[in-house]
TrEMBL record:
PROSITE patterns: G_TRME (PS51709). GO terms for molecular function: GTP binding; GTPase activity; metal ion binding. One of its GO terms (cellular component) is cytoplasm. The gene is mnmE. It comes from Novacetimonas cocois. Belongs to the TRAFAC class TrmE-Era-EngA-EngB-Septin-like GTPase superfamily. TrmE GTPase family. Residues 238-377 form the TrmE-type G domain. Homodimer. Heterotetramer of two MnmE and two MnmG subunits. This is tRNA modification GTPase MnmE.
Length: 451
Protein backbone atom coordinates (compact mmCIF):
# COMPACT_ATOMS: atom_id res chain seq x y z
CA UNK A 1 0.00 0.00 0.00
CA UNK A 2 2.62 2.54 1.05
CA UNK A 3 4.78 1.73 -2.00
CA UNK A 4 1.80 2.41 -4.26
CA UNK A 5 1.00 5.60 -2.37
CA UNK A 6 4.60 6.83 -2.61
CA UNK A 7 4.82 5.97 -6.31
CA UNK A 8 1.69 8.01 -6.94
CA UNK A 9 3.62 11.06 -5.77
CA UNK A 10 5.69 10.88 -8.94
CA UNK A 11 2.65 12.14 -10.83
CA UNK A 12 2.18 15.12 -8.49
CA UNK A 13 3.64 18.54 -9.34
CA UNK A 14 4.64 21.32 -6.95
CA UNK A 15 1.21 22.97 -6.85
CA UNK A 16 0.50 25.58 -4.21
CA UNK A 17 -2.69 25.79 -2.19
CA UNK A 18 -5.13 28.60 -2.63
CA UNK A 19 -3.47 30.59 0.19
CA UNK A 20 -0.09 30.38 -1.60
CA UNK A 21 1.37 27.76 0.72
CA UNK A 22 2.64 24.41 -0.48
CA UNK A 23 0.57 21.42 0.65
CA UNK A 24 1.65 19.22 3.55
CA UNK A 25 3.80 16.33 2.34
CA UNK A 26 4.94 13.14 4.02
CA UNK A 27 7.31 10.28 3.30
CA UNK A 28 9.31 7.57 5.01
CA UNK A 29 12.85 8.76 5.78
CA UNK A 30 13.96 5.20 6.48
CA UNK A 31 14.29 2.25 4.13
CA UNK A 32 11.67 -0.37 3.50
CA UNK A 33 12.01 -3.92 4.79
CA UNK A 34 11.98 -5.55 8.21
CA UNK A 35 13.23 -3.15 10.88
CA UNK A 36 12.47 -1.94 14.40
CA UNK A 37 11.74 1.72 13.63
CA UNK A 38 10.35 3.64 10.66
CA UNK A 39 10.61 7.44 10.56
CA UNK A 40 7.76 9.25 8.83
CA UNK A 41 8.56 12.88 7.94
CA UNK A 42 5.85 15.50 7.54
CA UNK A 43 6.28 19.10 6.33
CA UNK A 44 4.22 22.05 5.19
CA UNK A 45 1.79 24.74 6.30
CA UNK A 46 -0.89 22.98 8.33
CA UNK A 47 1.50 20.34 9.62
CA UNK A 48 0.72 21.40 13.21
CA UNK A 49 -3.03 20.86 12.73
CA UNK A 50 -2.42 17.41 11.24
CA UNK A 51 -0.11 16.48 14.11
CA UNK A 52 -2.72 17.59 16.67
CA UNK A 53 -5.33 15.42 14.97
CA UNK A 54 -3.01 12.42 14.95
CA UNK A 55 -1.48 12.76 18.40
CA UNK A 56 -3.38 15.33 20.46
CA UNK A 57 -1.49 18.39 21.69
CA UNK A 58 1.81 19.35 20.11
CA UNK A 59 5.02 18.25 21.85
CA UNK A 60 7.54 20.88 22.92
CA UNK A 61 9.66 21.94 19.91
CA UNK A 62 12.59 19.63 19.11
CA UNK A 63 11.89 17.33 22.07
CA UNK A 64 10.83 13.72 21.61
CA UNK A 65 7.52 12.80 23.21
CA UNK A 66 5.78 9.39 23.39
CA UNK A 67 2.28 9.74 21.96
CA UNK A 68 -0.51 7.61 20.59
CA UNK A 69 -1.03 7.97 16.82
CA UNK A 70 -4.74 7.85 15.97
CA UNK A 71 -6.88 7.58 12.86
CA UNK A 72 -9.91 9.70 13.62
CA UNK A 73 -13.55 9.02 12.79
CA UNK A 74 -13.41 5.64 11.06
CA UNK A 75 -16.48 3.65 10.14
CA UNK A 76 -18.78 3.67 13.12
CA UNK A 77 -17.36 7.01 14.27
CA UNK A 78 -14.68 5.48 16.45
CA UNK A 79 -11.06 6.58 16.67
CA UNK A 80 -8.51 3.82 16.06
CA UNK A 81 -5.10 3.70 17.75
CA UNK A 82 -2.54 2.95 15.03
CA UNK A 83 0.66 2.93 17.10
CA UNK A 84 2.50 4.47 20.00
CA UNK A 85 5.39 6.48 18.64
CA UNK A 86 8.04 9.04 19.47
CA UNK A 87 6.84 12.35 18.04
CA UNK A 88 9.03 15.38 17.28
CA UNK A 89 7.76 18.84 16.34
CA UNK A 90 9.91 21.34 14.41
CA UNK A 91 8.13 24.69 13.96
CA UNK A 92 9.33 26.71 10.99
CA UNK A 93 11.50 28.40 10.00
CA UNK A 94 13.90 26.48 12.27
CA UNK A 95 13.47 23.15 10.52
CA UNK A 96 15.16 21.29 7.69
CA UNK A 97 12.66 22.54 5.10
CA UNK A 98 12.07 25.93 6.71
CA UNK A 99 8.40 24.98 7.12
CA UNK A 100 6.49 23.55 10.07
CA UNK A 101 7.66 19.93 10.18
CA UNK A 102 7.31 16.79 12.27
CA UNK A 103 8.67 13.28 12.58
CA UNK A 104 6.86 10.15 13.71
CA UNK A 105 9.19 7.37 14.90
CA UNK A 106 6.89 4.42 14.36
CA UNK A 107 7.18 0.68 14.73
CA UNK A 108 8.24 -0.48 11.27
CA UNK A 109 5.52 -3.01 10.54
CA UNK A 110 3.93 -2.56 7.09
CA UNK A 111 0.45 -2.39 8.60
CA UNK A 112 1.51 0.46 10.91
CA UNK A 113 3.14 2.42 8.07
CA UNK A 114 0.18 1.90 5.74
CA UNK A 115 -2.28 2.91 8.46
CA UNK A 116 -0.44 6.13 9.26
CA UNK A 117 -0.07 6.96 5.55
CA UNK A 118 -3.83 6.49 5.06
CA UNK A 119 -4.52 8.72 8.08
CA UNK A 120 -2.25 11.46 6.72
CA UNK A 121 -3.93 11.37 3.31
CA UNK A 122 -7.34 11.57 4.98
CA UNK A 123 -6.16 14.70 6.82
CA UNK A 124 -5.15 16.39 3.56
CA UNK A 125 -1.45 15.56 3.24
CA UNK A 126 0.04 13.95 0.15
CA UNK A 127 3.09 11.72 -0.45
CA UNK A 128 6.29 13.60 -1.24
CA UNK A 129 8.08 13.48 -4.56
CA UNK A 130 11.75 12.43 -4.70
CA UNK A 131 13.85 15.23 -3.24
CA UNK A 132 10.85 17.39 -2.35
CA UNK A 133 11.89 17.96 1.28
CA UNK A 134 15.32 19.19 0.19
CA UNK A 135 13.81 21.21 -2.67
CA UNK A 136 11.61 23.03 -0.16
CA UNK A 137 14.70 23.65 2.00
CA UNK A 138 16.34 25.22 -1.06
CA UNK A 139 13.24 27.29 -1.93
CA UNK A 140 13.04 28.56 1.66
CA UNK A 141 16.71 29.59 1.76
CA UNK A 142 17.84 26.88 4.17
CA UNK A 143 20.55 25.78 1.74
CA UNK A 144 21.71 26.48 -1.80
CA UNK A 145 21.84 24.19 -4.81
CA UNK A 146 25.45 23.13 -4.28
CA UNK A 147 24.72 22.18 -0.65
CA UNK A 148 21.65 20.24 -1.76
CA UNK A 149 23.81 18.21 -4.15
CA UNK A 150 26.21 17.60 -1.28
CA UNK A 151 23.37 16.10 0.74
CA UNK A 152 22.52 13.77 -2.15
CA UNK A 153 26.19 12.73 -2.35
CA UNK A 154 26.29 12.18 1.42
CA UNK A 155 23.35 9.78 1.18
CA UNK A 156 25.13 7.86 -1.59
CA UNK A 157 28.60 7.90 0.05
CA UNK A 158 30.13 4.40 0.22
CA UNK A 159 33.53 5.21 1.73
CA UNK A 160 35.05 7.50 4.34
CA UNK A 161 36.70 9.68 1.69
CA UNK A 162 33.39 10.16 -0.13
CA UNK A 163 31.70 10.96 3.19
CA UNK A 164 34.24 13.66 4.03
CA UNK A 165 33.96 15.27 0.60
CA UNK A 166 30.15 15.20 0.55
CA UNK A 167 29.83 16.51 4.12
CA UNK A 168 32.14 19.44 3.39
CA UNK A 169 30.01 20.31 0.36
CA UNK A 170 26.75 19.93 2.28
CA UNK A 171 28.09 22.25 4.99
CA UNK A 172 28.89 24.95 2.42
CA UNK A 173 32.63 24.66 1.70
CA UNK A 174 32.13 25.03 -2.06
CA UNK A 175 29.31 27.54 -1.67
CA UNK A 176 31.51 29.89 0.36
CA UNK A 177 34.16 29.86 -2.37
CA UNK A 178 31.60 30.48 -5.13
CA UNK A 179 29.90 33.25 -3.15
CA UNK A 180 33.28 34.95 -2.59
CA UNK A 181 33.83 34.95 -6.36
CA UNK A 182 30.30 36.27 -6.91
CA UNK A 183 30.75 39.06 -4.33
CA UNK A 184 33.98 40.23 -5.94
CA UNK A 185 32.40 40.12 -9.38
CA UNK A 186 29.38 42.10 -8.12
CA UNK A 187 31.68 44.81 -6.79
CA UNK A 188 33.56 44.95 -10.08
CA UNK A 189 30.27 45.10 -11.99
CA UNK A 190 29.10 48.00 -9.81
CA UNK A 191 32.29 49.89 -10.69
CA UNK A 192 31.76 49.10 -14.37
CA UNK A 193 28.18 50.42 -14.20
CA UNK A 194 29.50 53.61 -12.63
CA UNK A 195 31.95 54.05 -15.51
CA UNK A 196 29.08 53.57 -17.99
CA UNK A 197 26.52 55.79 -16.22
CA UNK A 198 28.86 58.64 -15.28
CA UNK A 199 31.35 58.98 -18.15
CA UNK A 200 31.74 62.74 -17.62
CA UNK A 201 32.29 62.65 -13.85
CA UNK A 202 36.10 62.26 -14.10
CA UNK A 203 36.17 59.12 -11.99
CA UNK A 204 39.71 58.30 -10.81
CA UNK A 205 41.62 56.10 -13.29
CA UNK A 206 42.29 53.74 -10.41
CA UNK A 207 38.63 52.62 -10.59
CA UNK A 208 39.04 51.03 -14.02
CA UNK A 209 42.52 49.70 -13.18
CA UNK A 210 41.19 47.99 -10.07
CA UNK A 211 38.22 46.63 -12.05
CA UNK A 212 40.45 45.08 -14.71
CA UNK A 213 42.80 43.70 -12.05
CA UNK A 214 39.85 42.09 -10.24
CA UNK A 215 38.67 40.43 -13.43
CA UNK A 216 42.18 39.12 -14.14
CA UNK A 217 42.58 37.70 -10.63
CA UNK A 218 39.15 36.06 -10.70
CA UNK A 219 39.83 34.48 -14.08
CA UNK A 220 43.22 33.16 -12.95
CA UNK A 221 41.78 31.74 -9.71
CA UNK A 222 39.02 29.96 -11.59
CA UNK A 223 41.44 28.55 -14.16
CA UNK A 224 43.65 27.19 -11.39
CA UNK A 225 40.58 25.72 -9.68
CA UNK A 226 39.52 23.98 -12.89
CA UNK A 227 43.01 22.54 -13.38
CA UNK A 228 42.50 19.77 -10.80
CA UNK A 229 42.57 16.67 -12.96
CA UNK A 230 38.94 15.91 -12.06
CA UNK A 231 39.86 14.38 -8.67
CA UNK A 232 36.70 15.43 -6.85
CA UNK A 233 34.48 14.13 -9.64
CA UNK A 234 36.38 10.84 -9.69
CA UNK A 235 35.98 10.37 -5.94
CA UNK A 236 32.26 11.09 -6.14
CA UNK A 237 31.58 8.53 -8.89
CA UNK A 238 34.35 6.04 -8.03
CA UNK A 239 37.28 4.85 -10.14
CA UNK A 240 37.62 2.15 -12.78
CA UNK A 241 40.74 -0.06 -12.82
CA UNK A 242 41.00 -2.38 -15.83
CA UNK A 243 43.05 -5.60 -15.65
CA UNK A 244 44.44 -6.46 -19.10
CA UNK A 245 47.00 -8.78 -20.58
CA UNK A 246 47.42 -11.84 -22.78
CA UNK A 247 45.30 -14.95 -22.16
CA UNK A 248 46.15 -17.21 -19.24
CA UNK A 249 48.43 -14.80 -17.34
CA UNK A 250 46.16 -14.83 -14.25
CA UNK A 251 43.89 -11.82 -14.76
CA UNK A 252 40.80 -13.56 -13.37
CA UNK A 253 42.82 -14.98 -10.47
CA UNK A 254 44.08 -11.47 -9.65
CA UNK A 255 40.51 -10.14 -9.81
CA UNK A 256 39.38 -12.79 -7.32
CA UNK A 257 42.35 -12.12 -5.03
CA UNK A 258 41.71 -8.36 -4.94
CA UNK A 259 37.98 -8.76 -4.37
CA UNK A 260 38.50 -11.72 -1.99
CA UNK A 261 35.69 -13.66 -3.62
CA UNK A 262 35.09 -15.79 -6.71
CA UNK A 263 34.07 -12.89 -8.96
CA UNK A 264 35.51 -14.40 -12.16
CA UNK A 265 35.78 -17.95 -13.50
CA UNK A 266 39.36 -19.25 -13.36
CA UNK A 267 40.53 -21.92 -15.79
CA UNK A 268 43.84 -23.14 -17.21
CA UNK A 269 42.20 -22.95 -20.63
CA UNK A 270 43.23 -19.79 -22.48
CA UNK A 271 40.44 -17.43 -23.54
CA UNK A 272 37.98 -18.38 -20.78
CA UNK A 273 37.00 -14.73 -20.16
CA UNK A 274 35.03 -13.52 -23.19
CA UNK A 275 33.23 -10.49 -21.73
CA UNK A 276 34.26 -7.86 -19.19
CA UNK A 277 33.51 -8.82 -15.58
CA UNK A 278 33.14 -6.06 -13.01
CA UNK A 279 33.45 -6.10 -9.22
CA UNK A 280 33.46 -3.28 -6.65
CA UNK A 281 36.23 -2.91 -4.03
CA UNK A 282 37.53 -0.13 -1.79
CA UNK A 283 41.15 0.93 -2.22
CA UNK A 284 42.60 3.83 -0.24
CA UNK A 285 39.10 4.85 0.96
CA UNK A 286 38.03 5.16 -2.68
CA UNK A 287 35.38 2.96 -4.35
CA UNK A 288 36.99 1.19 -7.31
CA UNK A 289 35.34 -0.94 -9.99
CA UNK A 290 37.75 -3.65 -11.10
CA UNK A 291 37.21 -4.85 -14.67
CA UNK A 292 38.55 -8.26 -15.70
CA UNK A 293 38.89 -8.25 -19.50
CA UNK A 294 39.35 -10.83 -22.22
CA UNK A 295 42.91 -11.84 -23.04
CA UNK A 296 44.56 -9.62 -25.67
CA UNK A 297 45.57 -11.67 -28.70
CA UNK A 298 44.82 -12.17 -32.37
CA UNK A 299 41.98 -14.65 -32.78
CA UNK A 300 39.63 -15.93 -35.47
CA UNK A 301 36.97 -16.83 -32.90
CA UNK A 302 34.18 -14.30 -33.43
CA UNK A 303 33.06 -14.22 -29.79
CA UNK A 304 36.59 -13.98 -28.40
CA UNK A 305 37.41 -11.21 -30.91
CA UNK A 306 34.43 -9.23 -29.61
CA UNK A 307 35.77 -9.75 -26.08
CA UNK A 308 39.14 -8.36 -27.13
CA UNK A 309 37.44 -5.34 -28.72
CA UNK A 310 35.55 -4.68 -25.48
CA UNK A 311 38.76 -5.09 -23.49
CA UNK A 312 40.40 -2.35 -25.57
CA UNK A 313 37.34 -0.14 -24.99
CA UNK A 314 37.68 -0.55 -21.20
CA UNK A 315 41.38 0.32 -21.47
CA UNK A 316 40.44 3.68 -23.00
CA UNK A 317 37.79 4.35 -20.35
CA UNK A 318 39.74 3.21 -17.28
CA UNK A 319 41.28 5.56 -14.73
CA UNK A 320 44.11 3.06 -14.25
CA UNK A 321 45.22 0.05 -16.33
CA UNK A 322 46.89 -2.92 -14.66
CA UNK A 323 48.78 -4.77 -17.41
CA UNK A 324 49.44 -8.28 -16.15
CA UNK A 325 51.97 -10.62 -17.75
CA UNK A 326 54.00 -13.67 -16.75
CA UNK A 327 57.54 -14.74 -17.57
CA UNK A 328 60.87 -12.97 -17.74
CA UNK A 329 60.10 -10.74 -20.76
CA UNK A 330 58.09 -7.52 -20.72
CA UNK A 331 55.31 -7.46 -23.39
CA UNK A 332 56.07 -5.52 -26.56
CA UNK A 333 52.77 -3.62 -26.54
CA UNK A 334 51.77 -1.93 -23.30
CA UNK A 335 49.40 0.94 -22.61
CA UNK A 336 50.83 4.39 -21.79
CA UNK A 337 51.01 5.07 -18.04
CA UNK A 338 49.82 1.55 -17.21
CA UNK A 339 50.88 -0.33 -14.09
CA UNK A 340 53.02 -3.27 -15.24
CA UNK A 341 52.74 -6.32 -12.97
CA UNK A 342 54.46 -9.67 -13.46
CA UNK A 343 52.50 -12.68 -12.15
CA UNK A 344 53.67 -16.22 -11.36
CA UNK A 345 56.98 -15.16 -9.76
CA UNK A 346 56.78 -18.40 -7.80
CA UNK A 347 57.91 -20.00 -11.09
CA UNK A 348 59.94 -17.30 -12.91
CA UNK A 349 61.45 -14.12 -11.44
CA UNK A 350 60.04 -10.78 -12.59
CA UNK A 351 62.14 -8.62 -14.94
CA UNK A 352 64.31 -6.01 -13.21
CA UNK A 353 62.37 -2.98 -12.05
CA UNK A 354 58.94 -4.60 -12.54
CA UNK A 355 56.46 -5.30 -9.74
CA UNK A 356 56.29 -9.05 -9.19
CA UNK A 357 53.49 -11.07 -7.59
CA UNK A 358 52.22 -14.59 -7.33
CA UNK A 359 48.48 -14.87 -7.02
CA UNK A 360 49.01 -18.58 -6.38
CA UNK A 361 50.98 -18.24 -3.13
CA UNK A 362 50.35 -14.56 -2.28
CA UNK A 363 53.84 -13.18 -2.91
CA UNK A 364 53.77 -9.42 -3.41
CA UNK A 365 49.98 -9.13 -3.08
CA UNK A 366 50.07 -6.82 -0.06
CA UNK A 367 52.57 -4.57 -1.83
CA UNK A 368 50.35 -4.52 -4.92
CA UNK A 369 47.27 -3.63 -2.85
CA UNK A 370 49.21 -0.77 -1.25
CA UNK A 371 50.31 0.47 -4.69
CA UNK A 372 46.75 0.35 -6.01
CA UNK A 373 45.45 2.18 -2.91
CA UNK A 374 48.11 4.87 -3.37
CA UNK A 375 47.15 5.22 -7.03
CA UNK A 376 43.47 5.57 -6.08
CA UNK A 377 44.32 8.34 -3.61
CA UNK A 378 46.49 10.15 -6.16
CA UNK A 379 43.62 10.13 -8.64
CA UNK A 380 41.06 11.50 -6.17
CA UNK A 381 42.88 13.78 -3.74
CA UNK A 382 42.64 17.06 -5.56
CA UNK A 383 44.84 20.08 -5.21
CA UNK A 384 41.74 22.26 -5.05
CA UNK A 385 40.07 22.65 -1.65
CA UNK A 386 37.13 22.32 -1.72
CA UNK A 387 37.24 20.15 -4.84
CA UNK A 388 34.96 20.25 -7.86
CA UNK A 389 32.55 17.33 -7.65
CA UNK A 390 30.18 17.60 -10.62
CA UNK A 391 30.36 18.25 -14.34
CA UNK A 392 27.61 20.87 -13.87
CA UNK A 393 29.86 22.92 -11.59
CA UNK A 394 32.80 22.63 -13.98
CA UNK A 395 30.69 23.75 -16.95
CA UNK A 396 29.37 26.81 -15.08
CA UNK A 397 32.85 27.90 -13.99
CA UNK A 398 34.22 27.35 -17.52
CA UNK A 399 31.42 29.55 -18.87
CA UNK A 400 32.24 32.19 -16.27
CA UNK A 401 35.92 32.15 -17.30
CA UNK A 402 34.89 32.46 -20.95
CA UNK A 403 32.90 35.63 -20.26
CA UNK A 404 35.64 37.07 -18.03
CA UNK A 405 38.10 36.53 -20.88
CA UNK A 406 35.82 38.40 -23.26
CA UNK A 407 35.29 41.17 -20.68
CA UNK A 408 39.03 41.61 -20.26
CA UNK A 409 39.63 41.71 -24.01
CA UNK A 410 37.00 44.35 -24.78
CA UNK A 411 37.69 48.02 -24.07
CA UNK A 412 34.09 49.16 -24.74
CA UNK A 413 32.50 49.72 -21.31
CA UNK A 414 29.02 48.61 -22.39
CA UNK A 415 30.30 45.36 -23.94
CA UNK A 416 32.53 44.65 -20.96
CA UNK A 417 29.60 45.22 -18.61
CA UNK A 418 27.41 42.81 -20.57
CA UNK A 419 30.09 40.09 -20.45
CA UNK A 420 30.43 40.62 -16.70
CA UNK A 421 26.67 40.23 -16.28
CA UNK A 422 26.78 36.98 -18.26
CA UNK A 423 29.63 35.78 -16.05
CA UNK A 424 27.56 36.70 -12.99
CA UNK A 425 24.62 34.71 -14.33
CA UNK A 426 26.79 31.64 -14.96
CA UNK A 427 28.07 31.79 -11.37
CA UNK A 428 24.53 32.25 -10.09
CA UNK A 429 23.43 29.03 -11.76
CA UNK A 430 25.96 27.18 -9.61
CA UNK A 431 24.20 27.95 -6.34
CA UNK A 432 20.71 28.51 -7.76
CA UNK A 433 20.80 32.28 -7.31
CA UNK A 434 19.16 32.80 -10.73
CA UNK A 435 16.12 31.29 -12.44
CA UNK A 436 17.05 27.63 -12.92
CA UNK A 437 13.65 25.89 -12.80
CA UNK A 438 14.54 23.22 -15.39
CA UNK A 439 17.82 22.54 -13.58
CA UNK A 440 16.00 22.11 -10.26
CA UNK A 441 13.83 19.33 -11.69
CA UNK A 442 16.98 17.48 -12.76
CA UNK A 443 18.87 17.95 -9.49
CA UNK A 444 16.12 17.08 -7.03
CA UNK A 445 14.70 14.29 -9.17
CA UNK A 446 17.84 12.29 -8.32
CA UNK A 447 17.02 12.24 -4.60
CA UNK A 448 15.27 9.38 -2.84
CA UNK A 449 11.70 9.81 -1.63
CA UNK A 450 11.78 11.08 1.96
CA UNK A 451 14.69 13.46 1.35
Amino acid sequence: MVATTMAAAMETSFIRRGDGALPVIFALATGTGRAAIAVMRISGAGCGDILRSLCGRLPKPRRASLRGVWRRGTAGGRDVLLDRALVLWFPGPDSYTGEDSAELHLHAGPAVIDGVADALVALGARPAEPGEFTRRAFSNGRLDLVQAEGIADLIDAETEAQRRQALAQAEGAQSRLYEDWAARLRTALAHQEALIDFPDEDLPPEVEQELVSTLDHLRDEMRAYLDDGGQGERLRRGLVFAIVGEPNVGKSSLMNALTQREAAIVSSRAGTTRDAIEARVVLGEVPVTLVDTAGLRETEDEIEAEGVRRALFHVKQADCVIHLFSGATVPDKVEPDCMLVCNKVDKVAAPAGIMGISVHDGQGMEVLRAMLARRARELTQGRAVPPLTRARHRAAIEETVHHLNRAGDDAWPEVRGEEMRLAMRALGRLTGAVDVEALLDTVFGQFCIGK
